[in-house]
Amino acid sequence: LMQLSIPLNFIGFIYREIRQGLTDIEQMFDLLDVPQEITDRPGATALEVSEGAIRFDDVHFAYDASRPILKGISFEVPPGKTVAIVGPSGAGKSTISRLLFRFYDIQQGTITIDGQDVRDVTQESLRGAIGMVPQDTVLFNDTIAYNIRYGRTEAGDEEVEKAADLAQIGAFIAQLPEGYRTMVGERGLKLSGGEKQRVAIARTILKAPPILILDEATSALDTHTEQEIQSALDLVSRGRTTLVIAHRLSTVIAADEIIVLKDGVIAERGTHRALLDCRGLYAEMWDRQREATEAEEKLRRARETD
Ligand code: ATP
Fold this sequence. Notes:
Layout: H1 2-31, E1 54-62, E2 68-77, E3 82-86, H2 93-100, E4 108-113, E5 116-117, H3 123-129, E6 130-133, H4 144-149, H5 157-166, H6 170-174, H7 193-207, E7 211-215, H8 223-237, E8 241-245, E9 257-262, E10 265-270, H9 272-277, H10 281-305
Parallel strand pairs: 3-8, 3-9, 6-7, 7-8
Antiparallel strand pairs: 1-2, 1-4, 4-5, 9-10
Helix pairs in contact: 5-7, 7-8
The chain binds adenosine-5'-triphosphate.
């Protein structure tokens, strides 16, 4: 058996190495998921963020010409305010965040930040001004400190720890035997979805961008974790112009405006209260989600009593 287990271990090792290689390549593509045709125009200047106002004006966009995704979208995120985009799966919510980063160019209309068209500024300055807390955070195979410091590589240890505390992950890190030196990622300690998201929040706190995109996780988190993450997100978005891409509705209640996207157009817009009162698509989504949450809770309680 010993003779067999050594080669098996070895095969396991090779398998993990290959898988890791693939993950690294995938991560690289994710990070560099920018079509090659997007380049700085000659004479592009650095984006100058004064207040951080975002404006989409009659934006039309299709990944391929045969299927329009956005058909004339106009909205504003005033400086320091929070606007949430909701809508059925595939409606184009995440597309809006990709367009703000100018990962693609739009076919018609304009997207501006403080009056500057995203096509006229350097991509480096544009991406430097926007912080993103993604749905699924990619962790590097390195220490947890490295992963947080990625937000601003010159940050000192104290700043890293402060950011972790603000993101509500400091206590968790402190109780790990190796603390901030704990290796994470595929080859190290595996963090849960909620823990990874808090690492992303800590990164963003360090980066301190004037504009923030929160791409809310699709997967349901337990209520306690969700509350912790919510308070960390509230903290990071305070005073920053924030666009929330909401796949669930729990984070949008406090948004200054909610935009309901459907079939490429804005179907409804308003505050949570106003949208509930008008008993339209948003109210329907809200009811359905509440029913689903209640069913989940019931199932969880039934399992606990088993
Ligand atoms: P979800 O809530 O499910 O994440 P979403 O509203 O964020 O959905 P998007 O990711 O913006 O939806 O996608 C909008 C549409 O564009 C989808 O139909 C999707 O299949 C399509 N799409 C997304 N990315 C690409 C791409 N790179 N190339 C072609 N089509 C794409």
